[in-house]
Amino acid sequence: MSGGGPSRIRQRKGQPDLRRELSPDVDDDEHLDVQNPRNRSYVEKLFESEQVNVAMIVVLTTLAFALRFYKINHPDQVVFDEVHFGKFASYYILRQYYFDVHPPFAKLLFGLAGWFVGYDGHFGFENIGDSYTEAHVPYVGMRALPAIFGSLTVPVVYAIMKECGFSTIVAAFSATIVLLDNAHVAQDRLILLDATLIFFMSLTIYSYIRWRKLRYRDFSFDWWVWILACGTFMALTWASKVNGILTVVAIGIAVIIDLWDILDIKKGHSMEYFWRHFVARAVAFIVLPLFLYLSIFYVHLALLTNSGPGDTFMSPAFQETLRGNELLLNSQELRYYDTISIRHKDTRVFLHSHPDKYPLKYEDGRISSQGQQVTGYGHEDTNNHWQIIPTKALPETGRGRIVRHEDVIQLLHINTQTLLMTHDVASPLMPTNEEFTTWPKDDHSRYNDTLFQLRLVDGQEGEAWKSKSGHFRLIHVPTKVAMWTHPKQLPDWAYKQQEINGNKNVNDKTAIWFVDTIIADETGEDMKERTGDAPPKEPKSMNFFKKFFELQILMLQHNAGLTASHPYASGPINWPFLISGISFWTQTEGQKQIYFIGNLVGWWTCVIGISLYTGIMLADLIARRRDIEPLTEPVRHRLVNSTGFFVLFWAVHYFPFFLMSRQLFIHHYLPSHLVSAMIAGSVLSFALSETINYPVSVWGPRLRVSKTPTYADLGMRGPIVVGVFTLIMFIMFVYMAPLTYGTPGLDGQSVNRHRLLSSWTLHFAAKPTDAP
């Protein structure tokens, strides 16, 4: 009989324990009070035998490896985000510093895999479609790493379901949804991060469940093994990809609920007992993961010691720790009367001026000062040259002529012999900001308006201003605005150069500049003579934690800043329904393509499973308000504790994306999809069997209640339903395989037939023809 049958309805005998209902425990053995005959069907006994269990693991694992390694050498070209993650592996081998928004663990593994198979790191991974074969890149070995992780994830899903007490056939059902999913297979066989993320997330779930099953044997050796394993795998998940932090949040919520339950005085625990559990969880879920996360970044930074493409993202102090960095090699102290070129840190334009004037009247009717234009120009030019003028008496020689942090200076434009100035006149494009212009150097009537204070970023009192490394803000003394620019171009009257204006927010992180070149000093001395034949500079040292925190802040900022549009970006509301996919790779010759999309049968089954679970729990809640018990206590607690734990993981890995403004893609849903497969299995078990396998927790000395074991019995219904489902899902998988593996190519009509939803954007589709 189905899970909602009349035989389950009974009158309530007592109020439910709400703390138990909110806990994501895998089981609640103390409250099980239903007996079940042991005369299970022969089919159920057969499937629950150890031999079948082992055989199921072997079959699932073998098929997972077969599907993920099938034609893994195709295409022999760079596919989708392999342009990024393959390149990062190269940087590890060459030990060149790079910057990325994701933590480094998965990329470190790719670097290790590349080194292991003999890759020298010199392939560029510049564009999708670049040939691996022509460059002799051992790419198959690098793709094998995520393929192994993806393959092993399938038996881990099976093991999770079995550890939660579900029948073998139900566990196989959940594993099959992952096994035969086109999206997981496509992602697992490429140099991408998600396979590593999902594998360690699944191990985190598995370890947590194994640990919770030992709650009646707390502080035993096995208990410590599994709690520490859970913390370890959680840290590796977190360190694999930026959204791995969601796994930390999910486990954190579960642990907090667990501790809240232990704190209940009705449980009879002392505060000493509570604090022992609190400290154990703090060590396993806070101290250990933080130590591992820091250690992975320590290895990351210890390997990347050479200058590389990520230098410019970092602070000057950070860059000077990298061997061969331009700031380290070419940075020189600046002296008064040096002629320099100044560049904006973010947009890379030069501070520029030319004799042309601002127009008297702008298009919006505002009036300008008609002063000399000051703009941002993207190319080398003599109009970028400025001389540093002192505003204080200087010694004839010596270090007293060096420009220092918080000095007040003037900047003289060499070609026009005018001084940089700003004043209380609105800028051309931003009425709230001040206009920058210049003033003749011999006219002292506006002297104060030409004064600027030099503020070095993180500068110390008396610190010398340096070229290249001396990032600074230029603050106008009278009006306290910072010199600033933005990418928007001025009209034709300014030759479409960038606007320079005064920003009232002097701490704006985009108001930072640096001296690009020292052109000359006041005597015309060759700049090479200033330093003489100095030996090559050794990299400077910087505290690891300073480097770590700087990197973390930049990762968060740049991840949030990924807001540019993308043709294959999609919103989270679309993901569970497979409304759209991603074009990973195309090849005109043979009309081949890889289109990242999931197995419709599996994904929609998961959606139905989540919907049914929500409906079941809502119906049970309403019925109990009317003093009706539609579910037995064992079934309810399994749905709340085991399935509820899965729902917690699904929700935490899904709903936060609705709050993000960055670019989002359907592959961000893969962790939630994995957990939704477990939810679907749980709902299937509820539908096919009135009872559950009990107990699943390991009995220990603290448990004094003795219960007769009960068993789920799916009979022939389970194998038939799961067998038919697997066949249908396999047919769908095979049908979509040309889009998953990128071979064989499809003609236009075949592409149209594979476009199962009109929202899918497949390449090489045949144009519709009018009927005769």
From TrEMBL:
Question: Which intervals of the chain are annotated as region Disordered?
Answer: 1-34
Q: What would you give as a GO molecular function for this chain, any one?
A: dolichyl-phosphate-mannose-protein mannosyltransferase activity
By what name is this protein known?
Dolichyl-phosphate-mannose--protein mannosyltransferase
User: What is the similarity comment for this entry?
Assistant: Belongs to the glycosyltransferase 39 family.
PANTHER family per UniProt: DOLICHYL-PHOSPHATE-MANNOSE--PROTEIN MANNOSYLTRANSFERASE, PROTEIN O-MANNOSYL-TRANSFERASE 1
Ranges of compositional bias, category Basic and acidic residues: 14-23
Q: What is its main location?
A: endoplasmic reticulum
Which reaction does this enzyme catalyse, per its entry? a di-trans,poly-cis-dolichyl beta-D-mannosyl phosphate + L-seryl-[protein] = 3-O-(alpha-D-mannosyl)-L-seryl-[protein] + a di-trans,poly-cis-dolichyl phosphate + H(+); a di-trans,poly-cis-dolichyl beta-D-mannosyl phosphate + L-threonyl-[protein] = 3-O-(alpha-D-mannosyl)-L-threonyl-[protein] + a di-trans,poly-cis-dolichyl phosphate + H(+)
Query: What CDD domains does the entry give?
Result: beta-trefoil_MIR_PMT4-like
Q: Which UniProt keywords apply?
A: Endoplasmic reticulum, Glycoprotein, Glycosyltransferase, Membrane, Repeat, Transferase, Transmembrane, Transmembrane helix
Tell me where in or outside the cell this protein is found.
Endoplasmic reticulum membrane
How is this protein positioned relative to the membrane? Multi-pass membrane protein
Q: Where does the chain cross the membrane?
A: 97-117, 137-158, 165-184, 190-209, 221-239, 245-263, 283-304, 601-623, 644-665, 677-699, 720-741
Entry EC number(s):
2.4.1.109
Q: Which organism is it from?
A: Lentinus brumalis
Q: What does this protein do?
A: Transfers mannose from Dol-P-mannose to Ser or Thr residues on proteins.
